[in-house]
Design goal:
Blueprint: E1 17-25, E2 32-39, H1 45-49, E3 59-67, E4 70-74, E5 77-78, E6 83-86, E7 89-92, E8 95-99, E9 104-111, E10 118-127, E11 135-136, E12 143-160, E13 163-176, H2 180-183, E14 184-193, E15 198-206, E16 211-218, E17 224-226, E18 232-235, E19 244-247, E20 255-262, E21 266-275, E22 278-288, H3 289-292, H4 295-300
Length: 310
């Protein structure tokens, strides 16, 4: 499916979602970040309780920062009255993403949770390539993935917490016409920058029990190539006992360098591994939507995902 740029103005159907995702490592490997801007926040307990009739009334910008002196997390949901968006801009409360055709600028003005402290600064994402292809993750194309900029340079200038660094990054987006847990039971995803290409690995189980997998490499001209996935390797479970798995070259043993996010149903980690004949540091995530559906987990979410009523 053809696609171009982030396009923040797309319609999101009732029950559906859209998100734009950025991750990056610092050049020295000490810092990492992920930023996700949501319409119809897929993990929001408020969106689920509302019946998911109005995705535009459940938007959030999630910021996760890791570094040698600690980390920061913010994900405050806001209603439609605090959301503004068009093709090149998406603002949720005081934070915003802006695209000028060459650079994505993310202005962050959030409050962390559950301990309230400011998370403020600016992140600039400068793509080295723009992806022009989107991929369906299910046969009915109800869940779609668009790698906007598989390789990018990222500049981080945070005021709170105080950190400034640059490094390699990645920028993609996902869209769906139904809740994520309606389509899937779990998935494992990883991306890694190779010397010349970018590798992306997707695999998991759909809600009907059918497995799916996707192994791709994109070259510096933005051309995607299907490749045979390397052997599957189990990773250590998280502290919440979420199962993790990835793909790695035969005979190699991936190592979890750091777990950035460890939640009852979700984990994002940095992996040191051998992939397609190269040593790489990869960003990896594991998602258990069976766990997410649990009433116990749902009751825990507001502590990390507050909703602002102003």
């Amino acid at each position: 499916m053809p696609a171009q740029g982030p396009r923040f103005d797309g319609a999101v159907a009732p029950g559906g979602y859209a998100w734009w995702y950025v991750d990056a490592f610092s050049a020295d490997g000490r810092f990492g970040l992920t930023i996700i801007a949501f319409i119809g926040s897929v993990f929001s307990p408020y969106y689920k309780l509302s019946g998911r009739a109005r995705p535009d009334n459940h938007c959030a910008i999630n910021v996760s920062l890791c570094g040698p002196r600690g980390s920061a997390w913010a994900m405050t949901e806001r209603g439609a009255g605090r959301v503004r968006r068009d093709a090149d801009h998406f603002a949720v409360g005081p934070s915003a993403l802006s695209w000028d055709g060459d650079t994505l600028v993310i202005d962050i003005a959030e409050i962390s949770a559950p301990l309230p402290y400011p998370v403020r600064g600016t992140v600039r994402v400068r793509p080295e390539m723009i992806g022009t292809t989107a991929f369906a993750l299910d046969p009915d194309q109800r869940h779609r993935w668009h790698p906007v900029a598989p390789r990018a340079r990222v500049e981080v200038e945070m005021v709170h917490p105080d950190m400034r660094w640059t490094g390699d990054g990645y920028f993609d987006s996902n869209f769906g016409d139904e809740p994520l847990e309606t389509g899937f039971d779990d998935w494992h995803w990883a991306r890694a920058h190779l010397k010349h290409d970018v590798a992306v690995l997707y695999e998991g189980r759909r809600r009907n029990g059918a497995p799916f997998d996707l192994a791709l490499r994109v070259d510096r001209q933005g051309r995607w190539h299907d490749v045979a996935p390397p052997p599957r390797v189990a990773l250590p479970r998280t502290r919440w006992l979420v199962p993790r798995a990835t793909r790695a070259d035969a005979g190699s043993t991936p190592r979890v360098a750091r777990t950035w996010i460890d939640a009852p149903f979700y984990a994002r980690s940095a992996l040191d591994m051998q992939l397609f004949g190269e040593p790489v540091r990869a960003v990896h995530e594991s998602l258990s939507l069976g766990r997410f559906r649990s009433p116990v987990v749902q009751s825990m979410l507001p502590y990390r995902m507050p909703r602002a009523f102003w």
